[in-house]
Amino acid sequence: MPEMTTATAAFAAPPNPFGDLIATTQQALTQPMGPWPGAHLPDWVIFPLAMLAACAAVLGFIAVSAMVLIYLERKISGHIQSRLGPMRTGWHGILQSIADAIKLLFKEDLVPDASHRFLYSFAPVLVFVGALTPFAAIPFAPNVVVANMSLGLFYILAFASLEVIGVLAAGWATSSKWSLYGGMRVGAQMMSYEIPLSLSVLVVVALAGSLNMSEIANQQLYIPFVIQSPWALVAFFLFYISALASAKRAPFDLPEAESELVSGFHTEYSGMRFAYFFLAEYTSMVVLSAIGAIVFLGGWNFPFRADTSPWLGAGQLFVKVAALLFVMIWVRWTIPRVRIDQVMYICLKVLLPMALVCLIGATLQVVGVPAWIMWIVFAAIVTGITITGRRIEKVRATQPAGQTA
Known about the structure:
Blueprint: H1 21-29, H2 43-80, H3 96-106, H4 117-132, H5 152-160, H6 162-173, H7 177-208, H8 213-218, H9 225-228, H10 230-246, H11 258-261, H12 271-295, H13 310-332, H14 340-366, H15 371-398
């Protein structure tokens, strides 16, 4: 199958009329302006304007996405729990997110007397920047990306790690025991789950031979990597579980466990500073869902090839991201919270070894082992694990109560 053997092929980035937004804005601003032929803005004005245009586009997308997600989470959780959710502010409560944003904008901004004022003010900004900057390298459709970076996936994962530092600073700066406990949990949880998350992504990087997000998507014109390789299929589930923990979503929402820590690391925050943390959480959900859709599920190219149709590609990518976001919301209101020791056990003794096995399997596939052989090996491993598990259950069922094997 030719699509599965192009991992080492050279990739030439396609023309990017909208995507390279900074370069496009620079080019537009250097064109002759008004009735004066040849007049143009100087370079020291053009670049900041191009940067502002890119930031405005990303900020607008983030703001709208967060408000829509907050509304959908309330409605979905309401129906899961046999409730209606927001109903009074607008038709079926559709204006509730806007009302909440206005409320937070005018809410009193309180600063604890014992807090470290600089870190207290800087932490929400750092968390939000860590959630904002990855959008620069995420392609939304063919040729639609702010900056088409050759190391785009590395850039996304690197800047997403800034959120950990901001949350740690927020937990320490408020001089509150509840916030400090939440911050320490974040330090243990988020930094630990970044390891299996990165290893699961490396599986596809090995198969694609590139860190460029557009190239990874273009290598899935007909078949996504979760079908091309069994190791990518397992890596996708590992990535998604790690993404839930990295985004502090239930059942891994221990850093802000309201039943134990009041509100965790942002207990002492109010007004717009609290809104930054809230916005960063939903932004991280969108970023991680977009990575999963592009890297594992074919991006904009599956089930229909859309490398020449930006609208079709954007629609297909939107459906995949929306499906992953829906599962995140569904899981939050379905599965109970796990203990902190269980969180670390899942990361270090389950996800991490499985991610390493997937990476080794993907490496073998890259060096020449056919995909069909890998699927046979994978099926044999799954069958062996299933049979062993059933035998262990039978042995335990035949033992008297209180005895172990």
